[in-house]
Amino acid sequence: MKRILVPTDFSPNADKALNFAVQIARKAGAEIMLIHAVETLMDDDDFRTMKEKLDEIAASIKATEFVETTTRVFRDSSVNSVINAVYEHKPELVIMGTNGSSGLKEVVYGSRTAAVIGRSPVPVLAVPLLAEWSIPRKILLAVNKFNVPDKLLNPVITLARYFHSSIHVTVFTDMDDDYSEDFKKHENMIADFRDELVEKYPETEIHAVHLAGRHFRESLQGWIDKEKIDLIVMLTHRRTLIGSIFNSSMTKKMSYHTNIPLMAIPDNTGAN
To answer: From CA 140, how far away is CA 142, in angstroms rounded?
Structure first.
């Protein structure tokens, strides 16, 4: 990993995401690109003030954390600014904050973060406001298919290598939808998938987790709480896994909440 992109609006939420970026950048030997979007009309003096504010933060990071940090101010919406920066500067990861102590749905669909996840060609790490940095010892990788290309696995494998993390790869069986048939099939497939990953990445500790229940969110959160998971990773694609999971009951309020980061890896392979 060479570059991490971090958008900031100078809020505590953005500061929290920046701290996560610093910790990962230090381990990866990566640089940080810190950007700010000016969404309203602003004269040149105010524009320069924003740039100076970014530069002060960058100088502090360099001096105290020894992480190379560059800055840029965009005259565009926050979402467009992030996406334009991704295509222009080619970071391997975007890290940005989400609002409040929110449920899994809000973590992903917190407006701007959701829009970036939907458009970004590189992984996005969403950091909830109440998340506190800790080494991600346990990573939960949720999949709904087992023919995952290496390039989609690389971000989570790389992160696991940096921090000597274990990966818990999981699939969910809906008890209300052909439960018996799907349960046995998923039980065999997740075990085979785990064996495939172990053979491919022998230096990484990998476990198979088969979750079953009537609601994915509750089952997922139960495992997160039980195993003290530090980071959730999901693959997103055109008909997103995130969308299918979290839009299954639009009228039901979230029953479970999480304050751990969620990494969304875009699946642009077109595989089903």
So the answer is: 6
| Intervals of CATH 3.40.50.620 along the chain | 3-128, 138-261
Residues 42-83 have pLDDT tens digits of 777 878 888 999 999 999 999 999 999 999 999 888 899 999
CATH topology for 3-128 is Rossmann fold (3.40.50)
- Gyration radius from the chain CA atoms: 19
CA distance 212 to 205: 23
138-261 sits in which CATH class?
alpha beta
Instruction: Give Cβ neighbours of residue 45 (< 8 Å, ≥ 6 apart).
Output: none
DSSP output for 90-159: --SEEEEEE-SS-BHHHHHHSTHHHHHHHH-SS-EEEEETT-------EEEEE-S-S---HHHHHHHHHH
Half-sphere exposure in the Cβ direction for 268 (13 Å, CA):
9
CB 229 within 8 A of CB 140: yes
Positive or negative CA dihedral for 152, 190, 233, 203?
A: negative
pTM for the model stands at: 0.86
Give the contacts of 94 (CB within 8 A, at least 6 positions apart): 4, 5, 6, 7, 82, 86, 116, 120, 122, 123, 124, 125
Task: Find, among 78, 141, 132, 79, the residue nearest to 101 by Cα.
Answer: 132
Torsion angle, alpha carbons of 63, 69, 75, 81, to 10: -140
